[in-house]
């Protein structure tokens, strides 16, 4: 072997590229594509947060921060988690400010995984869970979520999936890509299973602010599992701050101190200017957040109705900013549907298979897009489906 | 039902069907609510926000600070009515602070507005003084930016 690839370790070399990649390449060839494909807010960060970032720059806050993050921000995070979810973490030693919530997921996994360790990953879900398990040398084990269960975790299925190799389980609600959310009582049943098992629980609550007609319950509010729960959250979805790269990870101090070692060597600290902006976000932006949530909710209803009016079966998502219609009635696979829709009508939605094999038969469309775009996309989808029916 | 108002405040062209889809109310409920809002005066009208600077129309806006002597019994309301009934007056607000009314006037040119102030406004009984400020540029009106916009520059990313 003469290529530098020979240095790449086998587990990385054999990782397939993301299934979404080819659609991005296609988009670049086409003009006038309407994308309901990107999983990030279309809103620009609220002005007062941007202004706080500008002010931080003017003040010369251009240095590293403390490894765990600016103390003031950690305190704000603790206050916010208490105020919003009644979750309690000590800002001194139970919170690390991370480079996006995704760093938090990676930190937790890299702190625990040894070769052969398995991590239960509910599917379909965010592509990075499986990816991070693999890059950290673990083995992902899929726990398929089913439409008939509204894409929630079935406690019995969870219990059956846990083996003596299971090191951790990921709890991903509100869920990307399905938009599913689990209620407090439903989570209680999950917790009852987890109580009996000796494993780490990683709860990714990045979409916790984006729920509709629904009181979100954080996994961090269950005392019986608190000492082995890692809570991951951040600013990207709630405050439309994706590009700032700002998140946080919370847990028992005895666990967090080990994640802290990895964080300080790999990343040192989250971007300092972003951290100052984050303080403003948590302190003064509840109104901006609820305005965005209100707008998402209107678009959610509009897109859901639109898709159902096209004759597609679609369960009602109560969180995040995605709908996950069932497209099996069209006779197409997820991939055929998405490629056809993109080539013929220039609308991008993502095949469910990008989020795991159990996503076959579904596509993910986001309503983090303007109402005009959503309207136009629905019209184009109607043309596409009518044409396909005619054939 | 307040949500219907919020939608219309942002986009008065939203159709009953669209509002129905956005809110989950039935089409009849939305239509009835809008009819009721129009009838009871909650909705006072529908209009477009226009940046006249983009057109060749000659057009100036002035903000006039007006000091008044309040009248027995009627306070400022009657005085205000005598002013805001002029069609040139686009907006009229009673203010706290060092003057009493903010009057926003539009006209074809500086001269027209100046004439309105000197011949119509300042001669009204009870108007003590006026101070006229001409608007040089409108950046934002009715919560809508009149120039530029923040484009959707999101890039394709795997997530």
Q: How are the elements arranged and paired?
A:
The complex is a heterodimer of chains A (391) and B (159).
Chain A: H1 10-13, H2 21-29, E1 34-35, H3 47-58, H4 71-85, E2 95-98, H5 100-112, E3 118-123, H6 127-135, E4 139-144, H7 155-161, E5 166-171, H8 184-195, E6 200-204, E7 229-234, E8 247-250, H9 253-266, H10 272-284, H11 286-309, E9 322-323, H12 334-345, E10 347-348, E11 350-351, E12 363-366, H13 371-390
Parallel strand pairs in A: 1-10, 3-4, 3-5, 5-6, 6-7
Antiparallel strand pairs in A: 2-8, 7-8, 9-12, 11-12
Chain B: H1 2-10, H2 16-23, H3 27-39, E1 60-68, H4 77-84, E2 89-94, E3 101-107, H5 110-121, E4 127-134, E5 140-141, E6 144-145
Antiparallel strand pairs in B: 1-3, 1-4, 2-3, 5-6
Helix pairs in contact in B: 2-3
| Tally of discrete structural domains of chain A | 2
Report the β-strand fraction of chain B as a percent range: 15-25%
Query: Helix and strand string of chain A, N-terminal first?
Result: HHEHHEHEHEHEHEEEHHHEHEEEH
Number of helices of chain A: 13
Strand content of chain A: 5-15%
Largest interface: A-B, 27 and 16 residues
CATH level 1 name of the largest domain in chain A: Alpha Beta
Under the CATH scheme, which class of the largest domain in chain B? Alpha Beta
- What integer value in Å does the Rg of chain B equal? 21 Å
Distance N to C terminus of chain B? 36 Å
